[in-house]
Design brief:
alpha/beta; 9 strands; 20% strand; 7-stranded mixed sheet; Rossmann fold; elongated; Helicase, Ruva Protein, domain 3; 248 residues; 9 helices
Length: 248
């Protein structure tokens, strides 16, 4: 490889052939699937994905040097290479009915990329991401605003841990492979407002609810003001959001 990895992009290339093959297997790729790979880097995972009879493979890469490398080294008519920032990418512009999203996500922007994915959940029934293990566990916990934002629309499954030695350069922490499968627990029409509510709910999460919401609102949903955000079930969060959204 003749290109230099850049710290500002959080680039840690997965180089284990065995793990790459396993990720492709976990992707449950089927004939005529349209797939998006975020941050393909030098195309190691890309080559594994192309072994399957998928219809099209969009590659979203921010690093212009990586884009040039991929253009010169990957030749397959199914590939559509896009230089773009995955934290704000508009997946609707791909004009596809459904997308499967995969990626070894940069640690520094993984949460922003996944937050953006949730905004397009109607278009994306399946995602598979390699992220920092601690981040994956936080998403699974249901104890943060982003965790609830994700779990409102997806079921999450922790698939495996990937040690630092399988990357170049090796990160300082373990990574984890996590799978998202669409499972809508509540229809939300205004996702921006829902996000605003969840960030309010989890801002200073050790504060009691009465410090964040009017007493009258809490009585309406039969919640004690002494509860904290992490004490609530998903059903209680939905009920509180319904009433809150009628006011704000």
């Amino acid at each position: 490889m003749s290109i230099k990895l850049k710290k500002r992009f959080g680039q840690h290339l997965l180089i284990s052939l065995g793990v790459l093959k396993k990720i492709a297997e976990f992707a449950e790729l089927e004939e005529e699937d349209t797939v998006v790979e975020i941050g393909p880097g030098t195309g190691l995972l890309t080559r594994e994905l192309l072994k399957y009879p998928i219809k099209k493979l969009f590659l979203i890469e921010l690093d212009s040097e990586m884009v040039a490398y991929l253009k010169n080294n990957l030749k397959d008519e199914r590939i559509v290479l896009i230089q773009a920032d995955a934290t704000s990418f508009n997946y609707a512009e791909l004009n596809e009915r459904e997308l499967k999203i995969l990626g070894n996500l940069p640690y520094n922007v993984a949460s922003l990329i996944v937050e953006n994915i949730v905004f397009y959940h109607t278009l994306i029934p399946f995602s598979l991401f390699l992220v920092q293990k601690e981040v994956a566990e936080k998403w699974l916990s249901g104890k943060s605003w982003l965790s609830l934002f994700i779990q409102t629309f997806y079921d999450l499954e922790y698939l495996m841990t990937v040690p630092p030695r399988f990357f170049k350069p090796p990160p300082k922490v373990d990574s984890a492979l996590i799978r998202f499968k669409k499972s809508i627990k509540k229809e939300i029409t205004d996702l921006k407002n829902y996000k605003k509510f969840l960030t309010l709910l989890y801002q200073h999460k050790r504060k009691m609810l009465r410090k964040k919401f009017p007493e009258k609102l809490l009585k309406e949903v039969n919640l004690s003001g002494t509860l904290r955000s992490e004490d609530l079930t998903l059903k209680e969060v939905f009920h509180l959001y319904e009433k809150w959204s009628q006011i704000f």
